[in-house]
Automatic annotation (TrEMBL):
Keyword Hydrolase: yes
The organism's taxonomic lineage, starting at the top: Eukaryota, Viridiplantae, Streptophyta, Embryophyta, Tracheophyta
Keywords, comma-separated and alphabetical: Glycosidase, Hydrolase
Family: Belongs to the glycosyl hydrolase 32 family.
Protein name: Beta-fructofuranosidase, insoluble isoenzyme 1-like
InterPro entries per UniProt: ConA-like_dom_sf (IPR013320), Fructan_Metab_Enzymes (IPR050551), Glyco_hydro_32 (IPR001362), Glyco_hydro_32_C (IPR013189), Glyco_hydro_32_N (IPR013148), Glyco_hydro_beta-prop_sf (IPR023296)
Glycosyl hydrolase family 32 C-terminal domain residues: 274-467
Pfam families, sorted: Glyco_hydro_32C, Glyco_hydro_32N
Highest taxon in the source lineage: Eukaryota
Native organism: Xanthoceras sorbifolium
Glycosyl hydrolase family 32 N-terminal domain location: 1-271
């Protein structure tokens, strides 16, 4: 998943059922070990219909050619479905009753929903009376994803796995905000109903895979290594707050392993171990004290393309700023309290893709507040100072981190790749991807530093940083 060879498109518009477009879908491995792809096609009536394709030559290790049988489409929108908002079939799962099930994203007025379909033979599909799940005022649900996670350990599970020690995750990509949201909950199999946990908010304020430039993600079960892998797009031109919807494009993020946190309340994400094969020259820093207003450069690695893992130690939390309970929008808090707005504990973190004199830089940082009964951790990745070029979308991104500060430590790992900064806070509890376009901080002119702009001293307990090499095969 690091080295990739570009091949010809496997599926493209060629039949009446997809003549106006081939859109997103998912792959399923059938019991005979034969893969099948379900995808959305746009037919001559501009309806979104669900089609399937099978490999033309199973002996080809790359499965380069796919056949679209003439009995397509398999699923068409009935009279109760908006035919222009009906797309992105999921990986199928096999129930104990021998029936396959898939979800298709859609909406009814402003209610987002995941339509459920069942099939005995993977060809004839029947819509369930009720969607698996829906939520009011959320708009179109694109690219739904539904999969089991173990309540113990990091081991991934096949999409069809059922058991007592399992919870399920439902992810939806909201077309209105261009963000990926998820809940953790319970799949009631005999009713084909998904029930989010009581502590899993179901709506626009629900948990997100990533609080930055990240959209239209998909997971899959890697049977070879028993893990679930998450992949998304670092889209470059959408704003959740733009009045006018813009087109979007992007690059794929680093593949992430995903599993359930010990608390059972949220997922954890971490770059796959294979990424470490790209690590080159390294540098280590230990026990560097950062007083208020200080920063130090992390030298010895290529700052424009690096993997940096930092552990911050906080000698005292006594001077943390008071948390206002009305601060429910992390991004808004970050926009008001940026990297230069001095607080008590923080802002502290990394200055990535920085020019020599800090005309450009993308700060990734923490800020700690004191609420009534706990500390609240804010994590930001602020692109407002990332480029001198005008007209770019340069937002501050942020999310709250459910971090236990009993040991007074916080970790931050950032993967830097020229125009993308992917950051993982507190071991992957909160992730933020920023797409930035510096004009000065490029190639050898990019710099990397740790900083502290809080009033209280912060100790950089550990820094492990590596230059990242290019894959030997890349698209």
């Amino acid at each position: 998943m690091i080295n990739w060879e570009a091949l010809e498109p496997a599926i493209y518009s060629s039949k009446p059922f997809d003549i106006n477009g081939c859109w997103s879908g998912s792959a399923t491995i059938l019991p005979s070990n034969k893969p099948v792809i379900l995808y959305t096609g746009i037919d001559p009536q501009q309806r979104q219909v669900q089609n399937y394709a099978v490999p033309s030559n199973l002996s080809d290790p790359y499965l380069r050619k796919w056949t679209k049988p003439d009995n397509n489409p398999l699923v068409v929108p009935d009279q109760g479905i908006n035919a222009t908002a009906f797309r992105d079939p999921t990986t199928a799962w096999l129930g104990n009753d021998g029936h396959w099930r898939i979800l298709v994203g859609g909406k009814r007025k402003r209610r987002g929903m995941a339509f459920l379909y069942r099939s005995k033979d993977f060809v004839n599909w029947i819509k369930a009376k009720h969607p698996l799940h829906s939520s009011p005022e959320t708009g179109m649900w694109e690219c739904p994803d539904f999969y089991p996670v173990s309540v113990m350990g990091k081991t991934g599970l096949d999409t069809s796995f059922m058991g007592q020690s399992v919870k399920h995750v439902l992810k939806v990509s909201l077309n209105v905000t261009r963000c990926d949201y998820y809940t953790v909950g319970r799949y009631v199999r005999n009713k084909d109903k998904y029930v989010p946990n009581n502590n899993s908010v179901d709506g626009w304020s629900r948990l997100r895979y990533d609080y930055g430039n990240f959209y239209a993600s998909k997971t899959f079960f890697d049977a070879a290594k028993n893990r679930r892998i998450l992949w998304g797009w670092a889209n470059e031109s959408d704003s959740p707050h733009d009045d006018v919807q813009k087109g979007w494009a992007g690059i794929q993020t680093i593949p992430r392993m995903v599993w359930l946190d010990d608390s059972g309340k949220q997922l954890l994400q971490w770059p796959i171990k294979e990424l470490e094969t790209l690590r080159g020259k390294s540098v280590q820093v230990r026990n560097k004290v950062l007083k208020s207003g200080e920063h130090f450069e992390i030298k010895g690695v290529t700052a424009a393309q690096a993997d940096v893992d930092v552990t911050f130690s906080l000698p005292s939390l006594d001077k943390a700023e008071k948390y206002d309970p009305s601060w429910t929008d992390a991004q808004k808090v970050c926009s008001q309290k940026g990297a230069h707005v001095k607080g008590g504990i923080g802002p502290f973190g990394l200055l990535t893709l920085a020019s020599k004199n800090l005309e450009e830089y993308t700060p990734v940082f923490f800020r700690i507040f004191k609420a009534a009964n706990k500390h609240v951790v804010l994590m930001c990745s602020d692109a407002r100072s990332s480029s001198l070029k005008d007209g770019l979308y340069k937002p501050p991104f942020a999310g709250f981190v459910d971090a236990d500060l009993a040991d007074k430590k916080l970790s931050l790992r950032s993967l830097i790749d020229h125009s993308v900064v992917e950051s993982f806070g507190a071991g992957g509890k909160t992730c933020i991807t920023s797409r930035v376009y510096p004009t000065l901080a490029v190639f050898d002119d990019a710099h990397l530093s740790a900083f502290n702009n809080g009033t209280e001293t912060v100790v950089v307990e550990n820094v492990n940083a590596w230059s990242l090499k290019k894959p030997f095969k890349m698209n």
